[in-house]
Amino acid sequence: MTENQTLTVRDNRTGEEYEIPILDGTIRAGDVGQIGRTDDEPGLAVYDPGFTNTASTRSAVTYIDGDRGILEYRGYPIEQLAEKSTYLEVAYLLIHGELPTKEQHDQWVHEITFHTFVHENLKSQLQGFRYDAHPMGMLLSSVGALSTFYPEARNIKDPDIRHEQIVRLIAKMPTLGAWSFRHAQGKPYVYPDNDLTYTENFLSMLFKMSEQKYDPDPRLAKALEVLFILHADHEQNCSTNAVRSVGSSQVDPYSAVSAGIAALYGPLHGGANEAVLKMLKRIGTVEKVPDFIEGVKNGDEKLMGFGHRVYKNYDPRATIIKKAVDDVFEVTGVNPLLKIAVELEKIALEDEYFVSRKLYPNVDFYSGLIYEALQFPPEMFTVLFAIPRTSGWLAQWLELVDDKEQKIARPKQIYTGGRQLDFVAASERWA
Ligand SMILES: CC(C)(COP(=O)(O)OP(=O)(O)OC[C@H]1O[C@@H](n2cnc3c(N)ncnc32)[C@H](O)[C@@H]1OP(=O)(O)O)[C@@H](O)C(=O)NCCC(=O)NCCS
């Protein structure tokens, strides 16, 4: 510790002073707990609902600088990965911490490709869902169910066993996601095609009908690849925190990842792109954009897909998605809502209201347009997020399992209820 890397705190209740070390720009909650501690009283605690200013872990997976609009996986800028890499290579990078050699890459792709099939009993489980079941509900329960097919997965201290579950999870997510999609349409589930790449195979399982072999459009497969790379990790967000929190009980990774899927299911996390689409449809025409913007400035509306808790600059993923939009529309034809989106962005980026509040487009502003162009119903949007995020969740889970500083997650509370009440039996209360 260099000199002055401490915080001097004076407890005005007692006049006592404490010197608390500052490490990595943080103070230890345990050190705060020494303040005011006596034999009878607990020390000071920190109240931080939603962990807005609490670091829960050290992590070397993803770096974000929200003010500068920087996102890096394992130190590599997202822009370079989206342009030059594939999703599976990025997944390898996230999980292993380094880019693969040719042999490592080929082995990794081979392993993932040959674990894409799921047990037939799991297929029966999916088929048992109601015809209109939400695909996220199907996905989270089937991923949880995987733990029953691989009971050895609970040996989380064994690196070989861990590796096998990681491969299985990354491999099977597109299969389960695609089958959840087909289920709602009453179409037969399509088995994986191991001749295809990860995203091509996903497209095949989604859209193949009676043809012998599905021939995915390479531009769509590439756009999906980019979207998957952009969604692979985003450090300690709600679903990653869920995976880590549940994983801290040392449960198997299937159960931990299904907790992540459950967190992603919530509208505050995975649902914003659907809200963007609804907003664009409601606006209806480019001419109505100025009125809508006025409504936002008056506080009557929210410009969905703008603003971010972390990014106070252009979300770097939004810039990349915008390029992918053009590629997809080249295949599918232009979605008329795009014009409205472009006009909204143009006005908002020049308007004092948005500029002064540092409100820029986020990843969801354009992704919904792409998903709709690919004919996904809005319920599938979050599934399309969960599939690539699996590699990030697992990279974070691996870090957790090996982190000697981690303990079972167990936050404190400020108790606000009654105390020492006298229980009166029901027979007397209701008499
Ligand atoms: C993402 C989001 C929840 C971040 O919220 P936050 O960091 O807590 O920011 P705040 O809610 O404190 O917003 C700061 C100011 O900007 C305004 N603001 C934030 N997002 C806005 C939006 N999308 N449209 C209009 N005004 C917005 C707030 O009203 C507030 O204004 P005020 O200072 O006059 O009260 C928020 O920007 C939002 O709801 N965006 C739309 C939903 C969305 O796209 N979510 C996806 C995120 S990936």
From TrEMBL:
SUPFAM superfamilies: Citrate synthase (SSF48256)
GO molecular function, one term: citrate synthase activity
Domain of life: Bacteria
Family that this chain belongs to: Belongs to the citrate synthase family.
Keyword terms: Acyltransferase, Transferase, Tricarboxylic acid cycle
Gene3D superfamilies, A to Z: 2.20.28.60, Citrate Synthase, domain 1, Cytochrome P450-Terp, domain 2
Database matches in NCBIfam families: cit_synth_I, PRK05614.1
Annotated Gene Ontology cellular component terms: cytoplasm
Source organism (scientific name): Aeromicrobium marinum DSM 15272
One BP annotation, GO: tricarboxylic acid cycle
Active site: 308, 364
InterPro entries in alphabetical order: Citrate_synth-like_lrg_a-sub, Citrate_synth-like_sm_a-sub, Citrate_synthase, Citrate_synthase_AS, Citrate_synthase_bac-typ, Citrate_synthase_sf, Citrate_synthase_typ-I
Pathway terms, separated by semicolons: Carbohydrate metabolism; tricarboxylic acid cycle; isocitrate from oxaloacetate: step 1/2
Catalyses which reaction(s): oxaloacetate + acetyl-CoA + H2O = citrate + CoA + H(+)
Protein name (record): Citrate synthase
